[in-house]
Amino acid sequence: MATYKSPGVFVEDISIFPPSVAEVATAVPAFIGYTEKATKIDDGDLSLTPTKISSFAEYEQYFGGARNEPIVAEVVDDGAGGYTLQSLTVATVERKSQTGDPTLANLLYHAVRLYFDNGGGICYVVSVATYADDASPDGAKLTAGLDAVGLEDEPTLLVIPEAIKLGYAAYTALSAAAIKQANDLGDRFAVLDVWQGFAGPNDDVTIPSGTEKLATANRDAWSGELKYAAAYYPYLRTTFNYALTETDAASNADVAYAGAAAVDLVTLKTSNAAVYNFVKQSLKDYFITVPPSGAVVGVYAATDAARGVWKAPANVALSDILEPVVKLDNLKQDDLNIDATSGKSINAIRAFAGRGTLVWGARTLAGNDNEWRYVPVRRFFNMVEASVK
Predict the structure, then answer these.
(1) I want to staple 343 with a disulfide (CB 3.0 to 4.6 A). Which of 92, 170, 227, 368 is the partner?
(2) Cα–Cα distance for residue pair 29/60, rounded to 1 Å
(3) Which three-class secondary structure state does DSSP give residue 226?
(4) How far is 272 from 19, CA to CA, in rounded Å?
């Protein structure tokens, strides 16, 4: 208090409150995976460099587009003056149905697109390699991308959609590494996709030791401080079509018509416009299947912005999604929600008439933990701890 040397009335403002705590951002995902390019100024200068972006247009500017997988269509006459698509093969996998295993080798592009379309804001992208570098994702490179994210302070969510394309052992190791980073740093949360999430929860899947039920195999794969992670199931059928390259120089689609040798779309357009138009229209009916993590972290971001990190990111309809590839009812979800032995909860994504496809769960993998059972609780304390620090 000041010392006054003359008589009078003096007023002082004395602060009695401690300094305020500024809330840190809560939904800043780091996407790790393969991209078409990784260039800002010089070729490849963004490789293995966590890069902050704020829009999907910015992603395409720095990291390019989707991988154009080879497409082979067989077309025959239908006997009534029209055509029939006898078979369609994408990336060596015949598309007999609209659902199932994600055909695409690289999924990061679509995951980031789903993130922004479902309410996402800023995010980080780590390009571990380009499409031209590997025929399929490599676990060591994805782990290197995860390590690069560990040096950044701002990300709060870890997303590696291409982890599902790895073998079981590599998926197990990468999931454990993501959970460990979240626990060690204490300021982030891992959002995991269920390995082989196109199968039913009680279907058998092949793992190195033999066969196991899908839910059990995945629960065995997850380890560490489980309160720092959540898993989502099943995969999702999107409204996205397969990417097509159609220029004067090249095309990733070949068409065989009436037993003749296959030709690319560029040649077909000039040689048989009717078949060309039929194929282009038919391909619009085939949609890409992706793991749910990209859409889910978009819901995290939208929920945090609208309500706050303490609100469960659930009971929210997903944009750009036609349906989950596996239909679930209450009985099947009960087994996913609670596992008395391991306690590792799996969050379901379900379709409801009149409401669309909803995120229908908000549990961490620590399902038996009374304190850290729910995603918003763990993420709220992440925010508080980081803000106070």
Answers:
(1) 368
(2) 17
(3) helix
(4) 74
Cα separation, 240 vs 297, whole angstroms: 18
3-state secondary structure 333-382: HHHHHCCCCCCCCCEEEEEECCCEEEECCCECCCCCCCCCCEHHHHHHHH
Output the pTM of the full model: 0.92
93-136 confidence digits (pLDDT tens): 887 766 566 788 899 999 999 999 999 999 999 999 999 999 99
H helix runs in 47-90, sequence order? 56-63
97-133 burial, b at 16+ Cβ within 10 Å, e below that, comes to eebbebbbbbbbbbbbbbbbbbbbbbbbbbbbbbbee
Between CA 266 and CA 244 the distance in angstroms is 11
Do 230 and 191 meet the contact criterion of CB atoms below 8 Å apart?
Answer: yes
Please compute, for residue 123, the number of CA atoms within 13 A of its CA located in the half-sphere on the CB side. Answer: 30
Task: Name which of 38-42, 263-267, 345-349 the model is least confident about.
Answer: 263-267
| Distance separating alpha carbons of residues 338 and 171, to the nearest angstrom | 23
- The DSSP secondary structure of 17-39, one letter per residue, reads SPPP-PPPPS--EEEEEEES---
Distance CA 233, CA 199 (A): 10
Q: Which residue's entry shows tokens 């500024």?
A: 22
Q: What is the largest CA-CA distance in the chain?
A: 110
User: What share of the chain has pLDDT > 90, as a percent?
Assistant: 77
Reference 149, options 113, 188, 115; nearest CA is 188
Q: What span, in angstroms and rounded, lies between the C-alpha atoms of 49 and 177? A: 19
Q: What is the pLDDT of residue 244?
A: 87
Place of tokens 């990417």: 243
Q: Per-residue pLDDT tens for 356-377?
A: 999 999 999 998 899 999 999 9
Tens digit of pLDDT for each residue in 217-276? 999 999 999 999 999 999 999 999 998 888 877 889 999 998 899 999 999 999 999 999
